[in-house]
Amino acid sequence: MNSPLTERIETAGPATEIDVWENLPAEQQPTWRGHPGWSAATTRLAGEQPLVTLSEAEALRARLSRVEAGREQLLQIGDCAENFGECTAPHMAEKLATLDSLSDALRQRTALDVVRVGRFGGQFAKPRSSDTEWHEGVELPVFRGHLVNSETPTAAARHHDPRRMVWAYEASAKTMEWLRQHRHRRDSLVPDGPWSSHEALVMDYESNLVRTDSATGVRYLGSTHLPWIGERTRQPDAAQVRLLAAVANPIGCKIGPSATPADVVRLCEVLDPDRLPGRLTMICRMGRDAVEQTLPPVVDAVNESGHRVVWLVDPMHGNTTKTADGVKTRYLDDISTEALAAKAVLRTHGSHPAGLHLEVAADEVTECVGGPIEGEQDLYRHYTTLCDPRLNPEQAHLLLEQWASC
After folding, report:
1. How far apart are CA 221 and CA 132, in angstroms?
2. Which residues on adjacent β-strands are paired with residue 132?
3. How far apart are CA 359 and CA 171, in angstroms?
4. Which pairing describes strands 73-78 and 328-330: parallel, antiparallel, or unpaired?
5. CB neighbours of residue 391 within 10 Å
6. Which of 247, 265, 266, 319 minimizes the C-alpha distance to 290?
7. What is the reported pLDDT for 110?
8. For the chain, which ranges sit under pLDDT 70?
């Protein structure tokens, strides 16, 4: 039997045909096409080995089909935005230990196996609500993740640099090997992960990592096991949607409070026309004040359409607020309220609440209020996120305990 690395080499090979997404609109893209390094970076990516194998993606889809049927559950956690500087063996060991600890606790409380997915191995690009921000009286391009620019608040550091796509690939390649080693050490009869995931946002990066399996002719995205589409780029005719519609990976799509039932059914039609079990995960992120009104008609419409999706709850992104000093934070009470309300809606409307999608740090950060972080005055002790606030492991355990007990 081939090792994962051998199989990865044998299935390499960029797609050669002109793709449907190439001339479609794509929001939230870097402005770097005029950079002298753009051509070399995209050519390099197109010729690299895929970071994941088709068989790995298919194994994950098979497990997600069991999740959709209510026989298992899914936990997807990790950083808001990965840091190039933390793509090291010690940092990755901490992240994997956190994912295992939370997954084991969830399994023990629910008696259901947990499919373990990390927001790592490529979560280097972030959509933003504004193109610029102010820092000490100077207007700068906003930080868009290490794949695009640097968090350092200078004009030079915030310039969009396509060479960073290669750095992101190289960092992700190291992460994928650590994931494989960890997965093999677990030696589970039915592989439950850890699997990689990230938002498929930057088209120059994702499209150049689409590959065709030489044995089957099946096309798949070689950048991650489980790519997802964000709330800002989920338009049915957007480039990101059409790219993920064309590949064999299991895929996710975030839906917020503006998503109508017709919007979501249309996305199901585009992303999962064959209604393949485990293919499509809908990640609902409505916000605590909107979830009980907006989620029920969406769930009903999807059920009535005959599409069987994995319903995952993201109670983080609809509950971001700012302190009086302008520091972004989230309240654990708000996160719990949305998570439990969404779970109740899904059950009431005949769908399996598959699990949670959370931004969680591997160390004891102080970015969200609740549990051990008693108030906003405590946020300044250890606030290290590159973008949005994350739960620390203790806060995440408290949330999972509530989720499992209701």
Report:
1. 31
2. 141
3. 20
4. unpaired
5. 26
6. 319
7. 96
8. 1-18, 188-190
